[in-house]
Amino acid sequence: MVKLNIVFMGTPDFAVPCLNALIDSDDNVVGVFTQPDKPKGRGYKLQPTPVKAVAQEHGIDVYQPVSLKKGDDAQEAFKILKELNPDLIIVVAYGQILPKHILDLPKYGCINIHASILPKYRGAAPIQWCVMNGDKKTGVTSMLMEEGLDTGDMLITAETDIDINETVSELHDRLSEMGSDVLIKTIEALKEGKLNPQKQDDSKSCYAPMITKDMCRIDFSDTAINIHNKIRAITGYTILNGKRLKLYRTQICDRVVSGCECGSIVDEKSLTVVCGDGKCITLLEVQPEGSKRMKTEDFLRGNKLTAGIKFE
Questions:
Q1: Which DSSP state fits 259?
Q2: What SS3 state is found at 179?
């Protein structure tokens, strides 16, 4: 079977399994494009993106243009791409929009691995939004790229169930591995001439925008299930005794309470809180302001709380 020369474009941890799968395949990864390094940690030292780190480990040339659409960087990036002459460009969570002249460059076009069952959840944060909305299923879709945002023809889709207590980080890791399987199946089908592109139904799509800090504030007047889903999707926070408390993991209780203000602690031993619909959630993992993430039982050893205390 013919070997393809592939350029890979990706940036975060989610893209790493796909890059590793390509490296382990019979095809040739002739170059990797990723976002510029960013400062991290206490010393604000520049750190390579996860994709760059893997590419460098395998001796693959890495390119980090600030933009693919305008300026000197974009012109140089296009010149490099023409010299690499890829048969196929694979894009996984790259973080930049590809202009038409790049989309048209490879012989077989550009294929994107997207973390949702398209056409649902087009945009930057599909994993977070499917969890926050309480979806029971999600998946990964490979698609041919076009100028619209995640609007290209669908190629191969894999689905998976979402557990009611699964956090976004857990789902992220599962979907990233699923993405590598979908990618390899897509390339194999491409080589065999068995791909069957399917148009997306735009009427069934919804936009999954970036998550902002403002979204993370927990309003305990909401229902217990909505609060639970929000915390496992984007990590919520509340205010306790004037200090911020991050909420990482919760579970829904069978307990229903009446006559208590929402946001009130109804069981100080398990840190159970009543919500707007009278149902309760129990906080399992928290992070106090200025401290590390911990289990609630450890938090309660140093913070004596009583029933009736209310989260602000």
A1: S
A2: helix
Q: Give the type of residue at 153.
A: D
Q: Let me know if 109 is exposed, middle or buried by CB neighbors in 10 A (0-12, 13-18, 19+).
A: middle
CA distances in angstroms from 84 to 5, 57, 296, listed in the order given: 8, 20, 53
Return the closest-CA partner of residue 97 out of 39, 149, 32, 28.
149
Q: What is the dihedral of CA 35, 181, 208, 93, to 10 degrees?
A: 0
Q: How far apart are CA 227 and CA 218, in angstroms?
A: 7
Q: What does the alpha-carbon distance between residue 310 and residue 261 come to, in Å, rounded to a whole number?
A: 8
Phi and psi (nearest 5°) for 267?
-145, 100
- Residues 280-289 have pLDDT tens digits of 999 999 999 9
Give the tokens for residue 123: 């945009």
Length of the chain measured in residues? 312
Supply 253's token pair: 């209780």
Per-residue pLDDT tens over the stretch 50-87:
999 999 999 999 999 999 999 999 999 999 999 999 99
Coarse DSSP helix, strand, coil percentages of the chain, rounded to the nearest 5 percent: 30, 30, 40
59: left (phi over 0), alpha (psi -120 to 50) or beta: left
What end-to-end distance do the CA atoms of the chain give, in Å? 63
Lookup: tokens for 112: 């994107």
Query: Over the stretch 175-223, which tens digit does the pLDDT of each residue have?
Result: 999 999 999 999 999 999 999 999 999 999 999 999 999 999 999 999 9
CB 207 within 8 A of CB 123: yes
